[in-house]
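Internal ticket #5521
Category: modeling
Description: The requester needs a full-assembly model to guide mutagenesis choices. All entity lines are attached below as received. Residue total reported by intake: 615.
Assigned to: D.W.
Attached entities:
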Amino acid sequence: MAKPLAEIRRMNFDRVHLRAWLTRIRYFIFGKEADKGIIFRLFIYLILIDVAYIYLNPILYMISNMIKSADDLLDPSVNWVPRSIYTGVLQDAWQKLKYPTSFSISLLLSLAVALFQTVSCAVAGYAFARLEFPFKKFWMFCLLLTFVVPTQVVILPDLIFASALGVMKTYIPIVVPALFGHGLKGALFVIIYRQFFSTQPKELEEAAKMDGANVFKVFFRVMLPLAKPAILVVFLFAFVWTWNDYYLPSMFLNGSKSVPLSMGISQIQAQLNQQAADYGPSIFDEPIKMATSFLIILPPLLLYTFAQRWFIEGVERTGLVE
Amino acid sequence: MNANVNAKRKIKSSTIRKLEGSLFIAPWVIGFLAFMVFPLCYSFYMSFNTVKILATGIDVKWQGLKHYKYILFENGSLLYNDLFPFLRQALLMLPIIVVFSLLIAIILNQKFWGRTLFRSIFFLPVIFTTGQVVQEFMSQGEGQLGFLERYNVSSLISTHLTSTWSTPIVRIMDSFVLILWYSGVQILIFLAGRQTISASVYEAARIDGASPWDTFWKITLPAMLPFVLLNLIYTTVDLFTFPTNPILTKVTTANYGQSSALAWIYFAIIFVFLAIVFLVFSRVTRSHAAASR
């Protein structure tokens, strides 16, 4: 009698053991909750890596193509990794872009616009979030209207007045709107600031006011330092978008000798077309375009690699939107 | 007496507050008048005229509705040839962009190994999409998905659908990568929006035994609805005002009056499109709310 009992107990123990083991496997594969198991994890990584590949692919393609030598370009067995690094194309693009000059133009222009927009949009955004002024709802509607109106609707009058004021082929018509919280995507920045400031606790301002600070002190000493994440996001956006923008420069700087980098591609394209008409197409046509693109996006890419940690945090903390 | 003084002070302080507020908003309002209202009115005025820029000044001749008539009824090549394919494409791209960016934002919000790396990669489009560089990639054929060509999906679609819809679908699949590149800011907005839902709600749901599937539909999605609307608006505006947009490239200095009229018609279309998006969105949310009740 004792023996079978022990056996049953052992079998039971085995079964329990087995089940515990099975559960552990199940937990490992599916997870205690669906989002913690290995299958889900693998699935997520699959999607992420796929999309990351899609995002990185053009950049990698660009880099790999621009350092290929003529032999590598003609050899179909060389796909991604060239056998030797050839910098001639890069140098050629550097010269064709007049890189040092156009780089400084781009840098100055983007810095100016970005700085002006970060400050002027912050002032407007703070007013929209916290201050009282007449017809606030109406102006809010105007802000949204500004967001929706395409630049192309207002570009022609702008051009006429720019030429009437004699500021064509200068950077004034691009920079001045930024001073007033407008310009490229200015409305979006005002909205971002407005969202950020309206999530801040009111007590801070009240305390500062209690201590006798006027509205300017409250804004510049209390609120603006608090708004670092929003400032970072707006600055980076404004800088990069101005850097990349080629519509406004192509309108206002048409025919000017000194143009920002963003117009480089169309310039290079024109030069290449000219060359193709004279000598026929060259195998370096595409690499040279790739090298141009690389030289154009390199500075914002570097900026982003340095700023991305704060940038991502900033985005999360601004709450960007309601 | 005392009350009177108090009332006086109150009025005074509220006027002061208003003055301060006006001072803060003044630059923006001046900018709005100078860079928005004035050009808008002038371009509206130009759209009814023939404008010629001469060395001596601007020569304006009243034309009435001639430009509008010309664009809308007489010459289809200016507007309609590009408008309808573009509208269909936008209609398909809009939901794809929003759903895709919501999905990616939710995935990126989870805790997993290498999250920071993936996040920085996923924000790359925000930096580059605005530039001509991306256009360059797309014209190189980098926008295509390899497997579509391999399995000849596009011919399959064009044989099964009428050409009105198959063309935009094939075009979208051809430029699917481009769509993904367009969703940078949208992912950002969703990710920022996801932070507004507090973790305790999810904890409570888990304690009550809700599955992640339920949690998504009952908690995440309803809380994200305002952001969905915002993204819809942003995507619409972005798609319609992209500089490479076929219609907007026709707004040139060659013919001020006609270009202004075209721009205004186009602007009206954007407005109507936004209104439709708004309407559909509110309908869907209302029925969704009714269904979950």
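Resolution: model delivered.
Comment from assignee: Chain A touches chain B through 91 residues (CB under 8 Å).
Ticket closed.
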